[in-house]
Amino acid sequence: MSSPPTPTADLADLAALAARHGLTVSGARPSLPAYISRLWSRRHFIAAFATAKLTAQYSQAKLGQIWQLATPLLNAAVYYFIFGVLLRTSQNVPDFVPFLVTGVFIWTFTANSIMAGTRAISGNIGLVRALHFPRASLPIALALQQLQQLLFSLGALVVILIGFGQFPRPSWLLAIPALALQALFNTGLSMVMARLAARTPDIAQLMPFLLRTWMYASGVMWSIQQVLKGRNLPDLVVLALTCNPAAVYIDLVRFAFIDSFTADRLPPHVWALALGWAVLLGVGGFVYFWKAEERYGRG
Q1: Does residue 212 belong to any structural domain of this protein?
Q2: What is this structure's pTM?
Q3: What is the pLDDT of residues 259-299, one digit of tens each?
Q4: Which residue range is the domain that position 223 belongs to?
Q5: Which of 145, 176, 194, 218 could form a disulfide with 50 if both were Cys (CB 3.0 to 4.6 A apart)?
Q6: Has residue 77 been placed in a domain?
């Protein structure tokens, strides 16, 4: 007399049957090439989602999209009063207003991309749980939204630069590869934060404090080169300030736009650092996010 089939045997038979007919586990993480292919097939959704988010961002405010320009300009005005007037850091920095405004706009691009990443999953949890799509679409779309906002704001930056004697010249074209590398870096970092915040939502509350500290270490409103020349700092501090990715991208755009920067020879390691950070965070952040694909929206 034969014994009845065990539950384990039943599961094995069902798994074999599913594999024979091409069935897979619902919500399972696809291979990396398949995941990239699915993302590419949803590129129109990513672009539309980013544009819709950008349009809706200030829809409740009376001034609407004007706040896209007003927010970084007001921040620059506050920093100019504190650092330029009260602390007199402007005395050691040529073209201080273009220097400051460029730094604020480029820093805001990175900071907003990171904050958007922390809300990519938790802020769209209904969408994540209701529909099946590559979850990386969300942090990528939100990073694209911040790039769109930066491009919109660059018009105001150009007007300010011209108003303070910085006129268009061939070096301005260097801002294109610099911003492209920064966008890749921001997108990768946004995906890292999206995965971390999906598991630990409190990170979103902590990030403003970490970003403020990072901003002060990135030479947004003061010159890192002047500080390094005037002080005998430990080698580790010098290395951290020199290799700081936010400072690297800010310096590249300043080099492109501002005469007093372009007149000096840009250290060759800066472009190498910009490329290295972009590849490291862009590729590494994407893979890091993909590895948790099947866990987003659970719990």
Answers
A1: yes
A2: 0.85
A3: 887 766 677 788 999 999 999 999 999 999 999 998 887 75
A4: 30-295
A5: 145
A6: yes
